[in-house]
């Protein structure tokens, strides 16, 4: 029988795997029913369901072994048309969430497919890489990425802070035993697996050369999350708030079948760009950001009409700037397709456009927030009553005062401005700026990488002539 990705209810049921999640300091019974974790879990479930009966179902493509259908981003691209199909499928999901969920289930397809395209580079773990792709392609596994170490002792090599940095404490016949922590693992509490890998300081001893695909429910894993302070009338946070987790590995046994890297050389290739997963990550992230900016631009346009400023030249210019940001992101993503380059057994998104996107997007996102705060100013803060209070005895008399311009009533004003405030101004909106700013790590690394590429491909020399 033809296989299909899991359904929404398969996904929600899979979260009952004995995982240990501590939210706001209290252990969670069932993640899928927790008031602050269930919103995003239900949203992810909705994405899976759309692969079965929603519009996204028509975008599925055959799995590599031909036994079923999968999300296109979970396949290894061989042509520009493959990349175009991947773009359309990512876009279909991202438009459902308006780009507000950073870790949708296609996101880690970037890593696993890039690794599979370079499977021989993984030596004795090559069969594991191929098996991981086959399983995750079939299921469209929902991963979180556990890469960055807790931000402490950044001036010390990892082996001098092994009380914190994740490392292998021993190997057994069954697998490797890992200990340590990973910080800000977005979506860990509602993921099915973690892509765990060393990052940061150079590997001094083999203990730190490790990457693995680890099931979230594995004994010894503990996930600590804090709530994004969200009120009931925060429409985006209620559905899309993700939690950035501290994940603790307390002597966790990872079976050999799930180990992907165990030597320093492959670790360097994994983190250093040769495997190329950052290019695929940029492709997915740009398509997500495109959807987010479309949502923000649409809300902002309506907000200026409600304010009565939509015909002011400066306000129009500000909206145009936000739309230009959307066009730049979409254009660079499409340039990644046009500039696609061979990488292992694949055609990966082009490096120049991918790196240019990574360099540009963080600052542009901050600029966009400032621009909207400048032109919408008091309208953001003019939300004196919640939506559900409309029609109540103390609020009904002031509803005419809450109207918008051009016939918009109080309800529409509160709906539009409340959603835009959540996008830009609340804790949810502020975290999203930090998220976009931190997506590519420190900007100087990206800029140095861009210079290195211009030197390596000879373009800088040509420009100097
Ligand atoms: C909202 C959010 C969600 C995130 N989600 C995830 C996730 O899902 N998975 C994940 O793995 N990570 C995640 N991250 C982490 C993110 O990838 C990092 O924040 C990013 O890579 C920057 O690394 P850092 O925060 O450790 O800062 P650092 O790299 O420590 O940099 C901080 C500053 O110190 C300087 N610095 C640090 N070390 C040195 C050094 N040795 N020499 C010289 N200067 C130094 C840098 O130049 C910089 O100015 C998330 C972060 C945020 C904010």
UniProtKB/TrEMBL annotation:
Domain HpaB/PvcC/4-BUDH C-terminal: 277-462
Source organism, top-level taxon: Bacteria
Signal peptide range in chain numbering: none
Gene3D superfamilies: 4-hydroxybutyryl-coa dehydratase, domain 1 (1.10.3140.10), Butyryl-CoA Dehydrogenase, subunit A, domain 2 (2.40.110.10), Butyryl-CoA Dehydrogenase, subunit A, domain 3 (1.20.140.10)
Keyword terms: FAD, Flavoprotein, Oxidoreductase
Residues covered by the HpaB/PvcC/4-BUDH N-terminal domain: 7-261
Name of a matching Pfam family: HpaB
Protein name listed in UniProt: 4-hydroxyphenylacetate 3-hydroxylase N-terminal domain-containing protein
């Amino acid at each position: 029988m033809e296989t299909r990705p899991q359904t929404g209810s398969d996904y929600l049921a899979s979260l009952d795997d004995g995982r240990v999640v501590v939210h706001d300091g209290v252990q969670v019974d069932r993640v899928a029913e927790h008031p602050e974790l269930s919103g995003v879990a239900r949203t992810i479930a909705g994405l899976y369901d759309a692969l079965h009966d929603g519009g996204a179902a028509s975008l599925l493509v055959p799995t590599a072994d031909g036994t079923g259908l999968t999300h296109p981003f979970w396949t290894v691209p061989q042509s520009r048309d493959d990349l175009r199909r991947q773009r359309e499928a990512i876009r279909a999901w991202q438009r459902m969430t308006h780009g507000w969920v950073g870790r949708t289930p296609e996101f880690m397809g970037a890593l696993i497919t890039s690794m599979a395209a370079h499977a021989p580079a993984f030596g004795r773990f090559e069969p594991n890489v191929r098996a991981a792709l086959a399983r995750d392609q079939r299921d469209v596994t929902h991963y979180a990425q556990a890469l960055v170490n807790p931000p402490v002792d950044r001036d010390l090599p990892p082996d001098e802070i092994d009380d914190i940095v994740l490392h292998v404490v021993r190997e057994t016949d069954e697998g490797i035993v890992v200990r340590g922590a990973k910080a800000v693992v977005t979506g860990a509490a509602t993921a099915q697996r973690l892509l765990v890998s060393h990052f940061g300081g150079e590997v001094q001893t083999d203990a730190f050369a490790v990457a693995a695909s680890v099931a979230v429910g594995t004994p010894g894993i503990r996930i600590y999350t804090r709530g994004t302070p969200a009120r009931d009338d925060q429409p985006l946070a209620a559905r899309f708030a993700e939690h950035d987790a501290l994940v603790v590995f307390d002597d966790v046994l990872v079976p050999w079948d799930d180990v992907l890297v165990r030597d320093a050389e492959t670790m360097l290739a994994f983190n250093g760009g040769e495997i190329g997963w950052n290019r695929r990550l940029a492709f997915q992230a740009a398509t997500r950001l495109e959807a987010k900016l479309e949502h923000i631009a649409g809300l902002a346009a309506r907000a200026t009409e409600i304010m009565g400023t939509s015909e002011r030249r400066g306000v129009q210019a500000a909206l145009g700037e936000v739309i230009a940001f959307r066009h730049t992101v979409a254009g660079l993503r499409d340039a990644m397709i046009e500039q696609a380059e061979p990488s292992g057994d694949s055609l990966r998104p082009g490096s120049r456009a991918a790196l240019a996107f990574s360099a540009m997007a963080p600052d542009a996102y901050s600029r966009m927030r400032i621009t909207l705060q400048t032109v919408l100013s008091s309208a953001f803060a003019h939300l004196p009553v919640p939506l559900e209070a409309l029609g109540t005895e103390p609020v009904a008399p002031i509803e005419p005062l809450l109207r918008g311009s051009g016939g918009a009533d109080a309800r529409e004003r509160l709906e539009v401005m409340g959603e835009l405030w959540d996008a830009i101004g609340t804790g949810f909106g502020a975290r999203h700026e930090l998220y976009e700013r931190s997506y590519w790590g420190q900007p100087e690394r990206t800029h140095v990488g861009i210079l290195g590429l211009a030197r390596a491909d000879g373009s800088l020399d040509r420009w100097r002539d």
